[in-house]
Design brief:
With 501 residues, the chain is an alpha+beta fold. The chain is built from 12 helices and 6 strands. It has a domain of 298 residues: Outer membrane efflux proteins (OEP) (Up-down Bundle), CATH 1.20.1600.10.
Length: 501
């Protein structure tokens, strides 16, 4: 931008020198004056046009004019992006890709970023030149002839540094819009992953409940057989039927919940809320190394919400500098020609010569109270941005600590239930059933063993879903993907298969 001011100063000096040389005592014909007027008018227009920023998108991370045009074309129905197919084998990455390509909220955030970038060349350009025309209702008689009309052109030049600061303020706003777009993308990905893992848990809950319905039916048949053999009492059969009724009620509740959670996932994917979604495949528990200090550092460095406020703070600083520039005057350079006819009386020297006027208009910053208020306003906005940034960081730190706790707690529960409690509950159920068949155990103990297995199996699946949801929350807060040391395949199938044993 500094080059612009050097060019502007050079242009102004050349214009003044040219006007002095052309019009100071030089006899010019009307055609020559008009040619000079046309040349200088073109210079004004050229000076304004050359200050347009043609390459604002170049060098800006992730955006260029070509990509922005391509995005605009991609929003047309005929050039819609190809969406991945969502089926039984689709993983969470397929759902994320689908949402990134199809979510209107994310596209709107991108459009706002584009709009903010297009604001930069507008505020950095000079104001449009003004063409002035005046018609004399009554001719002005002069010694050289009557004056009928005048015309001219003028250009406003803001005080040195104003345009640069306006462009800087707009660019900081564009950077903030980019961070808001990144925040919208991270939030969308969290919403998709959170709903996906909840949907996964619902599917596994249904599968486990169905297995338990079959198990209770099997235990009821065992109780009936023993009742017929007079080795068990009738209340054992009734207890099995009651337990079966409770499981069927749970199963129906889970089936009704499927539409609700599927609607939430479809909304994030921008699909009809009643569109069917297949049950997710097996999830993987990512083995990641998470330390609180490292996650806090990652959040401060990469969280887009904090990045947005950082740019807002810089924008506030530039706004203060821009407000202080209002104490300095803007100035306007003008050039006018007064059309003069030949004198009807005699032939004086320079008969009919047009009057040529070069002028400068300076705006006087007289109302200092107004400019003082502008500086105070800019300072208040700057202080507000700094305090918003601190408030946001405090809130994010609190959310991060809770997400870390939930992630670690879910990992602990996965290891506890999958590797210890569920196998023991399955073994307990088998032993209790054998004891009941042999007449050394009660049916109540058998039902309790079944309930414990159901509870532990559901708790293990809940921990798997919580782990995925907590990791998604951590990545949203950290503003980046957390690298994994390795993957542990979830033991859902193992749990389901062991129930049948």
């Amino acid at each position: 931008m500094a080059g612009y001011y050097v060019e502007a100063e050079h242009f102004i000096s050349v214009a003044f020198i040219g006007w002095v040389n052309l019009f100071a005592g030089v006899d010019m014909s009307m055609s020559a004056v008009k040619k000079a007027f046309s040349v200088i008018s073109c210079l004004f227009l050229l000076g304004c046009a050359r200050n347009q920023v043609e390459n604002e998108f170049q060098g800006y991370p992730g955006v260029s004019r070509a990509t922005s045009k391509g995005y605009a074309a991609a929003t047309n129905a005929s050039d819609a992006p190809t969406l991945p197919e969502l089926n039984e084998s689709s993983g969470v990455s397929d759902y994320l890709a689908y949402a990134a390509l199809n979510n209107p909220g994310l596209q709107a955030a991108f459009d706002r970023w584009k709009a903010a970038l297009e604001r930069v060349p507008q505020v950095k350009a000079l104001p449009d030149p003004r063409f002035n025309y005046r018609y004399f209702i009554e001719e002005v008689e002069t010694r050289l002839g009557p004056q009928r009309q005048s015309y001219g052109i003028s250009q406003l030049f803001p005080w040195f540094g104003k345009l640069e600061l306006r462009g800087d303020v707009a660019m900081q706003a564009a950077h903030a819009a980019k961070k808001r777009y990144e925040a919208a993308r991270l939030k969308l990905f969290f919403e998709v992953r959170d709903a996906y893992y909840e949907y996964y848990y619902l599917g596994k809950s249904l599968a486990i409940t169905e297995q338990n319905v079959k198990l209770i039916a099997h235990l009821e048949n065992v109780a009936r057989s023993r009742y017929k053999a007079a080795a068990a009492s009738h209340p054992d059969v009734i207890r099995a039927q009651v337990e079966a009724g409770k499981l069927e009620d749970r199963q129906q509740t889970l089936l009704d919940l499927r539409e609700v959670i599927a609607a939430r996932l479809n909304a994030a994917l921008n699909r009809p809320v009643d569109m069917d979604i297949p049950w997710p495949a097996e999830v993987e528990v990512e083995d990641v190394n998470i330390t609180e200090a490292r996650m806090l550092a990652e959040m401060v460095r990469h969280n887009p919400d904090l990045g947005t406020l950082d740019f807002e703070i810089t924008k506030g600083k530039r706004g203060v500098d821009l407000a202080k520039k209002d104490y300095w005057p803007d100035f306007t350079l003008g050039f006018d020609v007064i059309d003069t006819d030949d004198s009807p009386v005699g032939s004086p020297g320079d008969n009919g010569k047009d009057a040529v006027i070069a002028g400068v208009t300076v705006a006087v910053p007289f109302w200092r109270d107004k400019y003082d208020a502008g500086v105070r306003e800019a300072l208040a906005r700057y202080y507000a941005a700094t305090r918003d940034r601190r408030e946001k960081e405090n809130a994010l730190e609190s959310q991060l600590k809770m997400a870390i706790y939930r992630f670690r707690d879910s990992q602990r529960k996965i290891d506890l239930y999958r590797d210890a409690l569920v196998p023991k509950a399955q073994e307990s159920l088998r032993v209790t059933e054998s004891a009941f068949r042999a007449g050394t155990g009660s049916f109540a103990d058998l039902i309790d063993a079944q309930r414990i297995l159901l509870e532990f199996s559901l708790a293990c699946e809940r921990a798997l879903a919580d782990c995925g949801q907590s990791l998604a929350k951590l990545e949203m807060l950290a503003g980046r993907r957390i690298s994994a040391k390795g993957n542990k395949t979830a033991g859902s199938n193992v749990i389901t298969n062991r129930i049948d044993q």
